[in-house]
Amino acid sequence: MTDCQGDGSPDLTPMELYEKLNVQGEKVRGLKSEKADKPEIDAAVQLLLKLKVDYKRITGQDYKAGSPPTDIVVSNNNGPAVEEEDDQVDPWKVSTTSAKGVDYDKLIVRFGSSKIDQELIDRIGKVTGQTPHRFLRRGIVFSHRDMHQVLDAYESKKSFFLYTGRGPSSEAMHVGHLVPFIFTKWLQDVFDVPLVIQLTDDEKYLWKDLTQEECYRYAVENAKDIIACGFDVNKTFIFSDLDYLGTSPSFYRNVVKIQKHVTFNQVKGIFGFTDSDCIGKISFPAIQAAPSFSSSFPQIFNDRKDLQCLIPCAIDQDPYFRMTRDVAPRVGYPKPALLHSTFFPALQGAQTKMSASDPNSSIFLTDTSKQIKNKINKHAFSGGKDTVEEHRKHGGNPDVDVSFMYLTFFLEDDEQLEKIRQDYTSGALLTGELKKCLIETLQPMIADHQNRRKQVTDETIKQFMTPRKLDFNF
Q1: What predicted TM-score, i.e. pTM, was given to this entire model?
Q2: C-alpha span between 331 and 340 (Å, rounded)
Q3: What pLDDT score was predicted for residue 233?
Q4: Strand 114-115 with 141-145, pairing
């Protein structure tokens, strides 16, 4: 049975609806070729026609196989489609023309996720008995899929597990790479659940000009930084795809199940693959999807297939998991839930992409205190005025000031952060003084991280990356 039934598709994005049409079209062709009973064929055709009507209503375009919707966002009232503006967000490229960064409200509408509102934040605090993380309080984790469902299950004493990951494209990680792991660590602590962390060294081998040996070495080096975030070895399994896939039949079986239920047209529509892309790229999304299912880790979950997964990630990874959520009910697994975070800006501003090849684009976890100070003073984009006199008179703009943006991620005290915002906006706080606040916040944080990383031995890495039972009974 297809997953698309009932009264149409009011909650689907254009791309999700396009994917549903592809699936339903294949089903109709399959029924006809198998000479199925006429009532079954007629019902499938009627659903296909209804989906085409929904697609036309939402996108303003006629459905055509092999031609995914372009330049479309869904309007809130299901009225005429409107053109998407300059923000581009996908797993490989994030760009915007706004100094404030990506318009996340528009992105929520475009991706069809749900905004995290105060009611959900309060509920997380109530269920966990803990103050919600600053990323939730400040809108850094801003969007979700099915988080209320996770909380419902948790309140009913039903467990879930966490899954996040890292694409190891370089040996050194920057502070922005810590964001999902800082938040995931908090989630693991307050919910006390297992965590799996995927290192997609295979993906980097397919997309980058790197050898397999380099990709695996980067995965191990990145694992040291991840472990240094404070994860509990008894509750956390970290794995390299190049290492784990060859040793886990259960994981590979799930990869193949997913591959069988996703067509080439679908991955072209979701990820923009072309006929000239290698087949490794085309099949990779199934590998990133597989950890969403508990049966991929029988050593942890004792072959259970019914545990829901919660995935904290940046929203550019959402296309992978929209695909996963579409496939899940057709292979008999729960849909993963998601918590989406915003993007971490480059020092030069939210319009600029951070690059591991440009050491001045961000603060790296290997930087010394002196390097941190120099980078922020020289390269951090300012929202202040050109002269002290103008700044005192008119104030600065914290919404585009990178030093203030960084403080929203890493300064814990809400009252202190709000005072900085007010003082900067009024002109009482100068740009140099704001940068000094950031320097004094980051220097000890990164020094502490470096000290913890030094304590991560080869034996520690082996413990985290060895498939094993964790301290949970399933």
Answers
A1: 0.81
A2: 25
A3: 97
A4: antiparallel
